Each structure stands twice: as structure tokens, then as C-alpha cells.
Input
Amino acid sequence: MFLGADGLRSCARGALLPPLFCTKEEILGGWVTKEMIVERRKRCVAILNDDLSEIDCKQCLRAERKRYGDIDFSRLGHLDLQHYTICNLRCSYCSYARNKSQFLPQYDALKVLRLFSPEDIEWNAHVDFAGGEPTLLENLEEYLEFFRSRRIRVLMHTNGVRFHKAIYDGLADGSLYWVTVSVDAGTPSTYRHLRGGDHYLQVLENLSRYAVAGSKGKGMLSVKYIFCESNCGEDDIAGFAYAMLALRPQKVWLTFDFTPLYLRQNDYDFSPQIDAYAQLYLLLKKHGIEPFHYFKEAVASVSQHGKEIMNRVLAAIGQRSAATMLDDSDLVYRDFRKSEPSISSEPLVFFTDPLRIIHDGTEERLSLVEKRVLLVPACPLTQALLAIPELKDAAWVGFLDRNPVQQGKSIEGRTIYSYERIRELRPDYIFIAAPEKHRKDIVETVFLNWDGKIPVAELAASASPETS
Ligand code: SF4
Output
């Protein structure tokens, strides 16, 4: 559910906008009930299935086929919080800033969310806490407390201009599982021009503090670079790359300003941004930071045009990488935020249907009768593995997840534990099926807590089960 400034929608992904199913006026009038939301959600699905209506959802690459009876309209899974748009910046790529529509909260979003009981929350519920700028909300702590009490994971988008202790604490204790800050510049002058405020050095200082909180192993800080027309120069690429090496956030995410897609400018030329993207990607990689292609999730997964841009980016990286020294250990800067040395072990590979594992180059059938199995992490990918017949024969199955918000919950009756409990749980097998974004960290953390003997295997890419 997307809580926007004009009311409620089913989601807001990439450049697509689903229909408004509940207006701001209805919320302010106090007429909205849980039953009403459920009915309106059903109506949205009916529109998606008719042959008449023109809605963005019909082009969405994420649209899935499900049996009607399998959809529970009364539950909350993915939330988007954007019912306010006030901000202390004026970014050139921001539609709120461009349209001069920066507003205080338009209604009490917590009142809407409280219509749903704790039992209505999915085990993997999470909220994209965006806006607007969250640190300008007077009751930011109240929101965070609500999500903590409902055990909803929080991904917070802040511009980092204002340091907020609640964000630092949330990162340190994991109640904020991601905090993401767009920097988009490698020089103060580009930042000022692009973001409409003279705060570059202040933001870098705040990032340094948040990176310390993220290094405690619970929440994580990611720093984003959104490529636009005005930030593709070499000064910015070099300035940003070396700032990241100095600050060492837990992740760097790269993406684009997709405004031309929103505006349906299909002939817009993204070439300069794609070229700059490839340069920055390889410069960071050469020195030991592997950035994440954020747009893969944000736009490429929902729009055909986004997918085409992604393919061009990967091709540009491929072309440039031939001329970039990527394997020279003298050029890799150690991640000083990580106290423990990273383990370079690689997991074995397993396949499903039937369950097989590759051992010393040989494929072996696997029986899990009377075996204890841990699945890592707790996510829809590993949940789908529960349907494998061999896992049904296992003596015991549990999940591992680094996020304290998830630990102690259960998925189909199987408990989620922390990585630190691997030895005490005495598994016979550890199976990993990780989303690409988290794969490296997950593998590393499993091996850091490993006893050196338990077979650890990762799901072969070709064997990924459906995760509807
Ligand atoms: S920081 Fe975010 S909300 Fe604020 S102007 Fe920039 S894009 Fe818009």
C-alpha cells in the first residue's frame, strides 16, 4: 500500500502509477475503514483484469498471475510512506520540487496504518519511508516506534542534510534495516547546483556518522548516486568515488534520473549518463567497492524501457572493463569499517527438483531424512524452498537472518534465528538462496559464523523457484 500525498494507491514502482483507490479527503473525513480499503483493493485487481481500463499496472513487468482465492486483501506487506513532501532541498530531478508542491503531512498516516492489527502484518512486511524528507517530521520517533512495535522492517530515504539521532540509533540496533542517502555529486558546486542547497560537506560528515552505526552489523547505510545531465563529469565521478572510499558506507547504489520516462519522452538519450555510470562503477570496483545496480529493482523490473537501459549499462561496463585493471590487489583499499577479515570461501551449489548438490565437481542426490537444515536468509526465495519435497522430509528446518526485526518470527512454523546461533543450532546443512543485492554479505556472514564442517550450499541460479 502506497500512502501518498493525495491518498492511497496499491504501490508506486519506478515510472508507473497505479490508480488512487482512497482519496486524501476520504481519509481526512474520517470515513476510511479497513473494510473500505479491502473493498477498494479488490476493485483495483478487478480493473487490472478487465479488458477496458487503461492503467499503468497493465504494463508493469512485475504483475503476476495468481489465483484470486490466494490473494489476501486484508494484509499489509510492502508499504510506501510518502504522505508528505516537505524538504530542505530542491533537487532538479524531484517532481515535488519542480512542481513547487512541498507539503506538510496531508493526513495522519499512522491512523490509517493502525486500522490494521499486528496480526494483519506479513512476516516480511517492510516500509519504504520516503517523502519528502523524514528528518523534518516532528513525530519521526513516533513513526519509528510504530514500525518497531509492529515488527515492520524500515528502509529510510533521507537526504542526510540533518543528522538525526533516531536514525543513528535505528541503524545501530537494526530497526532501520537500510538507510539510503542520495549524494549525486563529487563536488560541492555540483551538489549545490543539482540539489538546491549548499550542504555537501555537512552531508558527508553525517554519512560518516551513519556509516559507523551501520558497521555495528544490524542496519546498513547505502549511498546513492543518481545520474542526471549535470553530474556526469570526471570531477564528480572522481570526487564521489574517493569520498566513498574514505567514508565506507556499507553499500553504494547507482541509478538514473528517470524523469524522461515519467514524462514519456521515449526518444530521450541516456548515453552520457550510461557512460558516466560505467566509469564510476569500474573506478569503485577497482578499489574494492562493488556498487549495486539499484535501478535493476527500481525501474528495470517494471518497465521495458528501464530494462533496455539496464542492458546498455551492462554492455558499457563490459566494454570499458577490458581497459580497467580490476584484479590488482595493490589497488584495493581495505574496508576499515569491517573489523573481522572477510572470508573468501565459496559455497557449494545445489539444485532442486530433485535435490542435488555438487561436491568436488560431482553431482550427488541428497536426502534430508532426519537432517537438520538452515535456510538463509529469511526471504520469499527461501520460503519458496519449503515446498521442495526433500525439505518436507527433514527432521528440522529453521531460517537465519541478520535483521533483529525478523529474528524470533516464524515462516510457516519455522523460526528465524540470528547468524550467531549457527553452531548452537547444530545444522547438518545450510542452504543459501539470496537476492543478488545481499548475496556477498550473506555468504560472508555465514562463513564467519561457521564451524568449518557443515556443508554450505547456494541455490544454482538456474534452479531459483518461483517466488510469487
Ligand atoms: S531530497 Fe528528495 S524530497 Fe527533497 S527535493 Fe530532493 S528528491 Fe525531493
Observations:
- The chain has two domains: 2-331, 348-463.
